[in-house]
């Protein structure tokens, strides 16, 4: 691993004194070790443990009795039995002992679980016997996710997950007081952005936080009181104040529970996309899955009518599964918000269990805009992305790859503008140095578009900004055409007609377009798809040719990005075009990769 | 491919294509642009995908052919033995045809092997490593030096007996899959050090 030695240059902009550059809002991000929410062990598994113990005892009490007293007492009440034997004291003592042990274990695990946020990294250490220490370097952060599952939400706790690249390499801070979580995320992102705001003293920071968010401070009070309790610092509370704070706590919880997923002082208040619940429901109902369900509803009654009763028995569990799938999809898509913040795109969703992820700039590796066949009459699209650093083990996070569950074309364009700022895709000229570039090898008939043919070959290799060639207006329709066009001379370099042998339906639409910083791959006619990959995130470029492609003079191009639901590949394109595209992509990946400063997205651009 | 096939270029491969010297890779990222152009004019309809500068491909050691052939033979013998066992011991007639088919497949594989080995090549260009392999199914991969996360050297028993090693490049994308087999050990180590140094000097984020 060459990673270690790379640390030097990357950390250069961060001066050694951690106290000097601090504009943090919470005391949690001050570089000292902190503990998590005191209810953490309970939330993490304690409740389940208690429930399981209860079930086990309820079900096995007679067996247990038999085991411990070696007397067959079938039908007798265990409490009676204990009372009869005069062992009440011992029994109570045993229960107390077990309880104490469990509580001690909980307390210890909470006590030993601590985290700190320094200007360089987020660090978590945990474990009683086997200590683990996990550190996420801030310049490698791929996303910060705040999860609020139902139960912790009731307790006013939230899980903050710092995503770093790698399988399952995320650093979880579970659970934190809900009031701190958003502020802590802002702090982490601010530190990670490398933004050099003037040194702000701690007192100042607290003062600004106080004026900015009154209720948040109340929450902080409420949360720190039990937090400090075990350390014996909370003795000063009078009963009256306690009651008042409990009242405040309850209202605060209620407010939190009802508040939208975007807190107003951190993001523009408006989500750029609003999904009406009706559209969400319809989009879930109108899907390939529903076709299968309908088929099931037709097949099973027929089967039952023909005395195949086993079908009924397999049908009922399937029905439960189907219902839970729909409900899950629905609750996850509900209250969907997406908005741009200074520290990246924030995507929030969820009704009962909410999730709210911030993806810093330059962390989106590939984007796919797709439209299943059934959605076409409605003009709906969905957007999925590849990012590094997903914990792919639990299904709950897997759905986070969907950044737009369902939306129309203008929604898609707004979301893409957020995900790829300055990619030359926007209708308004985002940057003077971001003209759309297009390849013209001249030979494929589809590329014979007048505007495109004007681009001299090879001029495209000097990619971002350097080549103001072929200023094809980066009209909004580049995306729109990518989504809906049936092919032809539409700004995309498409596959030649002989590709029909391999892509009988979609060859007209199979093509690509290049902007200064992004490549757009278009494919599919039954299920339409547009894939966008920023050059700066391309890991490697591949070109391939099979025997049939060789006969037809075709080739394929692949862009290798980090693992995810999006695969950026162009199955067929003219051979010469594919060679040209390969070289351009390779050069573009090198150039953009070298000039990319998104690991510290807040630093001034002089780093270029 | 056709031009470079005859070049069993184990002749000091590291000297002629030092990535920083313009001599080895003349204006590498831009250079291939005119060539496909010319080729396209000549044969617009069909043709082989050809990328990179055809004169600076480094081929793998000819000894690597032995590794491949031995591997194919072992695999072939195991499969054929299985089919033969079913045919003779199990007294199943169809297994004879499976056996014949298997033998045919492995014979073809053996015949094609030399060309397949010769098709594996790499070149160090100004900013990226270009890798190719395959004749029937051709594959080219360009890995920018800055994207390399680590470089692995592995040696199988047969390769070790022949003094060969296998170099594997790992990027953040699993699909990259660039493995250069059949490099003499010292060359592999030298290449690894060179690539790590290059990756260091051009390190990009993820």
Describe the structure.
With 608 residues, chain A is an alpha+beta fold. Chain A folds into 3 domains: 22-229 and 240-269, no CATH class; 277-407, no CATH class; 411-600, no CATH class. Chain A is built from 18 helices and 20 strands. In chain A, the strands form 4 sheets. Chain A has a 7-stranded antiparallel sheet. Chain A is globular. By secondary structure, chain B is α+β, with helices and mostly antiparallel strands. Helices cover 44% and strands 18% of the residues of chain B. Chain B is built from 7 helices and 7 strands; from the N terminus they run αααβααββββαββα. A 4-stranded antiparallel sheet of chain B has the order 1-2-3-4. Chain B has a 3-stranded antiparallel sheet with strand order 5-6-7, sandwiched between helices. Chain B is elongated.
Structural class of chain B: alpha+beta
Average predicted local confidence, pLDDT of chain B: 77
Overall outline of chain A: globular
> Taking strands numbered 1, 2, ... along the chain, how are they ordered across the largest sheet of chain A?
13-12-11-17-16-15-14
- Rg of chain A, rounded, reads 29 Å
Largest sheet of chain B: 4 strands, antiparallel
Largest interface: A-B, 59 and 50 residues
Assess the beta-strand content of chain A as a share of residues.
15-25%
Note the gap between the termini of chain B.
33 Å
Protein name (chain A): YdbS-like PH domain-containing protein
InterPro entries (chain A): YdbS-like_PH
Keywords (chain A): Membrane, Transmembrane, Transmembrane helix
Pfam families (chain A): bPH_2 (PF03703)
């Amino acid at each position: 691993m060459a990673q270690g030695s790379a640390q030097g240059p990357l950390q250069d902009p961060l001066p050694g004194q951690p106290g000097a550059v601090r504009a943090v809002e919470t005391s949690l991000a001050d570089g000292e070790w902190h503990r998590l929410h005191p209810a953490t062990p309970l939330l993490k598994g304690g409740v389940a443990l208690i429930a399981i113990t209860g079930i086990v005892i309820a079900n096995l009490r007679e067996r247990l009795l038999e085991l411990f007293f070696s007397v067959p007492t079938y039908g007798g009440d265990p409490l009676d039995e204990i009372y009869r034997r005069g062992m009440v004291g011992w029994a109570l003592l045993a229960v107390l002992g077990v309880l104490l042990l469990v509580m001690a274990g909980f307390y210890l695990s909470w006590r030993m679980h601590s985290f700190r946020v320094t200007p360089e990294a987020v660090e978590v250490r945990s474990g009683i016997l086997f200590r683990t220490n996990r550190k996420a370097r801030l310049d490698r952060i791929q996303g910060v996710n705040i999860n609020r599952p139902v139960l912790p939400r009731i307790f006013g706790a939230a899980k903050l997950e710092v995503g770093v690249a790698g399988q399952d390499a995320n650093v979880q801070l579970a659970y934190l007081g809900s009031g701190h979580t958003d502020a802590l995320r802002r702090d982490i992102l601010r530190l990670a952005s490398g933004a050099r705001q003037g040194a702000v003293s701690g007192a100042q920071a607290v003062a600004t936080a106080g004026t900015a968010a009154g209720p948040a401070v109340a929450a902080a009070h409420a949360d720190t009181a039990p937090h400090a309790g075990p350390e014996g610092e909370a003795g000063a509370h009078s009963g009256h104040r306690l009651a008042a704070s409990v009242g405040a706590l309850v209202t605060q919880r209620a407010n939190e529970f009802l508040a939208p997923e975007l807190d107003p002082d951190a993001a523009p208040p408006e989500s750029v996309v609003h999904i009406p619940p009706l559209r969400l429901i319809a989009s879930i109902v109108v899907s390939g899955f529903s076709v299968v369900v309908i088929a099931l509803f037709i097949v099973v009654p027929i089967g039952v009518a023909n005395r195949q009763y086993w079908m009924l028995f397999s049908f009922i569990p399937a029905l439960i599964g189907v219902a839970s799938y729909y409900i899950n999809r629905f609750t996850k898509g509900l209250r969907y918000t997406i908005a741009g913040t200074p520290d990246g795109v924030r995507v929030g969703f969820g009704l009962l269990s909410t999730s709210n992820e911030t993806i810093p700039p330059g962390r989106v590796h590939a984007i796919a805009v797709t439209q299943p066949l059934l959605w076409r009459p409605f003009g709906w699209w969905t957007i999925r992305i590849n990012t590094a650093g997903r914990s792919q083990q639990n299904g709950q996070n897997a759905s986070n790859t969907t950044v737009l569950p369902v939306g129309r074309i203008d929604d898609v364009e707004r979301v893409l503008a957020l995900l790829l700022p300055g990619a030359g895709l926007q209708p308004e000229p985002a940057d003077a140095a971001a003209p759309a570039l297009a390849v013209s090898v001249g030979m494929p008939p589809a590329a014979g578009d007048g505007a495109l043919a004007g681009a001299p070959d090879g001029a495209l290799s000097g990619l971002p900004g350097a080549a103001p060639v072929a200023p094809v207006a980066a009209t909004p329709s580049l995306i729109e055409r990518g989504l809906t066009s049936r092919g032809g001379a539409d700004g995309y370099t498409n596959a030649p007609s002989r590709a029909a042998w391999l892509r009988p339906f979609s060859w007209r639409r199979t093509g690509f377009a290049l902007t200064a910083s992004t490549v757009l791959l278009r494919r599919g006619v039954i299920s339409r798809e547009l894939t966008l990959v920023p050059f700066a995130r391309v890991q490697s470029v591949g070109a391939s040719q099979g025997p049939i492609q060789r006969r037809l003079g075709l080739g394929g191009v692949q862009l290798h990005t980090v693992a995810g639901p999006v695969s950026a590949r162009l199955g067929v394109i003219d051979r010469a075009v594919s060679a040209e595209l390969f070289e351009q992509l390779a050069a573009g990946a090198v150039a953009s990769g070298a000039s990319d400063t998104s690991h510290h997205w807040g630093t001034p651009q002089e780093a270029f | 491919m056709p031009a470079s096939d005859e070049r069993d270029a184990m002749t000091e491969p590291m000297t002629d294509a030092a990535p920083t010297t313009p001599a080895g890779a003349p204006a590498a990222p831009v250079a291939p642009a005119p060539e496909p152009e010319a080729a396209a004019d000549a044969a617009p309809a069909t043709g082989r995908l050809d990328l990179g500068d055809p004169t600076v491909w480094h081929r793998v050691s000819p000894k690597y052919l032995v590794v491949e052939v031995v591997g194919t033979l072992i695999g072939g013998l195991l499969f054929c033995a299985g089919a033969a066992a079913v045919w003779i011991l199990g007294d199943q007639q169809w297994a004879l045809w499976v056996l014949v088919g298997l033998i045919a497949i492995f014979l073809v594989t053996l015949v094609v092997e030399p060309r397949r080995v010769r098709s594996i090549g790499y070149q160090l260009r100004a900013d990226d490593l270009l890798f190719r392999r395959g004749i029937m199914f051709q594959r080219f991969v360009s890995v920018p030096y800055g994207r390399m996360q680590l470089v692995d050297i592995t040696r199988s028993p047969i390769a070790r007996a022949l003094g060969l090693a296998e170099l594997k490049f790992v990027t953040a994308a699993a699909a990259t899959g660039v493995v250069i087999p059949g490099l003499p050990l010292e060359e592999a180590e030298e290449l690894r050090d060179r690539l790590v140094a290059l990756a260091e000097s051009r390190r990009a984020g993820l």
